[in-house]
Amino acid sequence: MLRKARADPLEPDQDLSAAKEHPATLRFPGLSKKWLRRIAGPVYALTVCAVVLLLVHGLSRGLNYHAMVTALSKTPYRLVWIAILCTALSYVVVIARDKCALAYSGVSIPLSGLLLASFCGSALGNVTGFGSLTGASVRARVYGALGIDAESVQQSVGLLDVGFGFGLMACAGACAILAGHWPRDAIPLTLLHAIGGVVLGAAGVVLLALMRRRTLVFGGLSFATPPTGIAALQLGLTAAELFAAAGALWFLLPSPRFDPLSFTAIFCVALGLGLISRLPGGLGVFDALIFLALRNDLPQDRLAAAILAYRGVYFLLPLLLGAGLLASFELTRTDDRPASRSGQRLLLGAGLLAPPFLSAVTFGAGAMLLISGATPAADWRLAALQSVLPLWAVEISHLLAALAGVLLLFVARGLYHRLDGAWWLAFLIALANVVFSLAKGLAFGEMAAVLVLVLLLLASRRQFTRHAAFLHQPFRLGWFIAITAVIAGAAGILFFAFRDVPYRREIWWQFESDAQASRALRALLAASLLALGISLWQLLRTAPGRVRPPSREELSRARKIISRQNRGAAMLALMGDKSLMFSRSGQAFLMYAKRGRSWIALFDPVGPDSEWAELIWRFVELADANDGRAAFYQIRPDSLPLYLDAGLRVTKVGEEACIYLNEFGLDGSQRYGLRQALKRGERDGLTFVLLSPQEAAPMYGEIKSISNAWLASHRASERGFSVAAFEPGFVAVQSTAVSCREGEPIAFITLMTGSKPGEATVGLMRYRPDAPPYTMEFLITQAALQLKTQQFEVLSLGMAPLAGLVTTPLSSQWNRVGGLLWRHAGPIYNFKGLRSFKNKFRPTWEPRYLAASGAIGPFISMAEIVALASGVRGGSSAA
Predict the structure, then answer these.
(1) CA distances from 14 to 309, 337, 842 (A)
(2) 589 domain-assigned
(3) Which domain holds residue 305?
(4) Which of 288, 520, 643, 691 has the fewest CB atoms nearer than 10 Å to its CB?
(5) Number of separate domains in the chain
(6) What's the whole-model pTM score?
(7) What are phi and psi of 849, to 5 degrees?
């Protein structure tokens, strides 16, 4: 049961974390079943992969590998170019859909930014489509870097998702109604038309019902219902996108081609089930369903070849073009020529996308090398090599190429995290494979793909600046599942390609030029063992971090760093209740605490901005390695791209009251209350003195007495984390402003400061029960005037939690909850009173944010922050 907490509007450091005395009540239903949620995703992924592999294996029994390769090589170039044009049209429509969604949100961005977000986001999302690599996540990164607020991003992404879902249903239903032909051994055409009518009617009814509502909620996002014209335009554009995408495959089908409308209906159903499977690009599910639907009407080998060609045209080609687009941004960027503000934001957005794109391309290159090692080379190529290279060189090249493919699968993770070690390893592996591709079987196409990877790596070199080895980064279970799926797929392709080879024990030891099955088996076995070894080493290694109090030496190092920077609130690190993580250079640090599975850093990193990205990534990886969630509390707007780049979700948690001292004075009607406080204080005999840490030391006993009296009168105990506490070592290093009456101290505030000119922050603010009610206005006003003469630029009064959260039909779920607490939680915590008190000084209210991992990470992290700041340190040891 919650007790009513005394929320005194005279205490500036009270924030959301001090709202309740019993934070343990802030639990979320279902959190006791964490183990179930942890294993649900991997079990689902493994189950889907296993089902897909079994389905593909069953469908491949009637196929011939060599016939497929021949059909693929004989695909007319004219049809390939038509498929490319259809693909281009599909992506143009995607860009138009993004433009429409942004216009609906009232946002306008340059065409280059739209291309970056829409085209690159769709290209990467189509190939990967999970975690922070979905099209929505990529769009959020770019739009955030371009300065678009989170609410507008959520609204446009939500409109795109809802529009695509209803457009897919409507297109499938309409095409089923209009279909004039259907595959043999399938349902009767009349029944098909009836099913199409039901699907189209259901989509229309649900859409009309939703359009009558003011707000739509989809995938955790809420946004206002769009006007009828916007909704119709989104549906029409989605239909055009689907027809163009289906056309890319339809033109690649062998003659006689299937009825276009019937094929589009099949295409939409396969696409929808592929999305439901949550596999990257619906890989396996989409392909198997298309093959299963058409195999009785078209030549199977040529049909399978057409599906493979479609994968290359619609998925891989846009991915490479997107990577090339990002590389062109990197190559055209010059450090000596300053760009405009919009240009800087565009370059920032391109920089955010370069590592994920290169990670996807590198992972694809690794999969290509493994599959290439599991398939036979053309006989004429091996014959040509016999006169140039000895057999042992061919064997070793084949083996090393497969091992390199496995390494690239793991290195891709490091590239995603911008590691310079991963970049160098990927670059060296790719260069070596230029030689291996030729030596193992004159694989010119493979060599060209590896060369493209080399060029992309060179063009994006400046994005990989984090100094760490890629094997030191934690690998999540999903990454191991993806690598396992690639190796299992390569094994399936091997047994499919060498189906006619008799597998005997002697096959492992055959070393002949035409013994390609033996060579492929040895390479795949070596690759599997290498992948297993790296995986076991990763899974069994000791967790890289433990939560422990900072040592005296660490606190001393932190104090030196604080003195060289200009944000006074960084002195909260010296309270000793937060662990410290230093950058590798030792020039910056990050303060954090842990409760439950939440690893929570307070503020942005402290120190030079160039060190921040490294600390943010290391902290996210530390939490991830210990199976926890990372969060950063009270971060500033100008640093948000760094957290978005780390894959975190950003939400606003309040506003900080900042008094800009160069503009502060007592003139004007708005300062009337402050002038009155000074006059009353002078009339009642109040005095003011600002003491340095050395000057305040003799008064420590009197200051401590005031603090104890304040705690007793408020029936409170010392707090921590984001709220200043009366710790001897912490108080001793701060300046102290004291107010006396008749020579006796009655109130004080401590001031956390960094270098001058810079920002001073109010730390502790306490007074005796018999102090006049205007004492704090008197004390803070005098302190602001004194700091102004000492050349400080800003005096921060601390956070007003939940202030400034917009609650409209377009608001996020967090904003709705925060707005509800702001309006109705007065009996528990006086949010409005705290802001009203700070507003007496007419500060500038600056937004502060929380960046957290996971869909519900912000909610859970805020509950843990409440507990930490209230002094509850449960579960503070590392998992």
Answers:
(1) 62, 46, 19
(2) no
(3) 63-332
(4) 691
(5) 1
(6) 0.62
(7) -130, 165
